[in-house]
Here is the input.
Amino acid sequence: MQLSAFQDGFCAALRTEAPTPAWMDALCAQPGFAVYRNSGRKAALDALRANYPTVVQLVGEDWFCGAAQTYLAVQPPADGRLMHYGAGFAAFLARFAPAAELPYLSDVARLDRAWTEAHLAADAPPLAASWLARQPPEALGAARIAPHPAARWLWCHEHPAYSIWQRHREGLAVDTALPWQAEGALLTRPSGAVQWCALPRAGVAFLDVCAAGQPLAEAAESALAATPGGAGETLAQLTALLLSSGALCAPTGAEDPV
Amino acid sequence: MNTSLTAGLGLKPEHYEQALACQDTGLWWEVHPENYLADGGPRLAWLDAIRSRHPVSLHGVSLSLAADAPPDETHLARLALLVRRIEPALVSEHLAWSHWRGVYQPDLLPFPRTQQALARVARNIERTQEALGRPIAIENPSHYLHLPGHDMGEGAFFAELVRRTGCQLLLDINNVFVSANNLGTDALDYLDQYPLHAVAEMHLAGHHADPVHGAALLIDSHDAPVAEPVWALWRHAIARTGPVPTLIERDAELPPLAELLAERARAHRALCGTPHEELACN
Here is the structure.
């Protein structure tokens, strides 16, 4: 038998939903076959559990295991980097009927995913306030500043998903009187560990424009437009937040001497 | 053989700080490169730091050398970057397949050892060694199935791979023990048929009996201390090869590092006790 034909048949048998060729029956009947099926499944589920810890905290092990097995059947790992596994899990939860009772669950999953991406992203020196201070004001508007490669930001339209996620990540109690409103989140990794903070709508708008490669003047305009009754104070506060959190990348050659 | 390596341990995030501070002679650390194929971040920083103090070995699990397809070029490129960054003392993979038609099955799957499979695996090893710019060592897997259709024994298969590609071998003694148990064959016979001259590294690990099928089906679980019969089989092997860098694998039910270091010290002492001129021993 061609090696590829053997491998097609073996894979079909591992995934119980697929039709299995008759010649695999004798192998499937051996006690050892279950070892392969079980250990592969366990490794994938363990990876999802590790990559979505806040979701696990919210729904418990049993519920998570059920959802994860359904996800695994439709979106198995594509490669061996299991630390990356589950890119589509938040979108899956948004469509997953049993999750309908927890409408914020998908957004919490997005935040878990953002943490993973921030954790594994490239290192880069963050933009320093001193660099900004040195730029002639007339040139600053035209400058294009990229978000830091480890920066992730998102806006949750309907739920206080950031507050829910942050409280669980930090082992704090969630207020029963949590204001049910939209929230933004910013995750960064200027050095070492991933850190996070709330992000105003203006911040999301600002970073979206920077990520699109547009100049700072446009990013500022977009930030102001996103803020009801926006003013200079918004930008000053936002700039301080983005700088202190390391959300922006130093332009090449602009790193401050140590 | 790199004589500054005696017994090593798998590096786990839980033990990063202590691993960095460890000063045991001959100690080296092994990782799955898959866990370090990141663009940056703290885990790579830890690996860099530990590598600056100790030799590091990269033990891949997902290259899928026995798949009837060339190795994934993106994976090879990432692996090559990590090899250039870490300058590992050893690089290894498995005689198994896992990645097939775009899906990764997180396990090490068996295949019939045919002449066609031999040609395919040899080509895949050659491509890998070319991409990484160095030889790699291939590990014998644990077996849980009687597979029909083998043209040759596993020892002969490995001997041919070594002959055709110049690759090295990673002899996993626990896998020899577990496979012999599960297939009803003899572990000593396996070693007799195996090309011991090509071994660059050995693995030791724990196993447990399947909860349903009992001792007839041992699982290579890496979740327990090395069993005494496995230590004995290893001593038999190194009596024939001389000392070889040996890793103690523990991936689950992790005890404190001190316990793993004590187990590792047993292997270190045995390697130093074996007659050999230039070992990194006290």
Notes: The beta strands of chain A are 152-156, 183-188, 195-198.
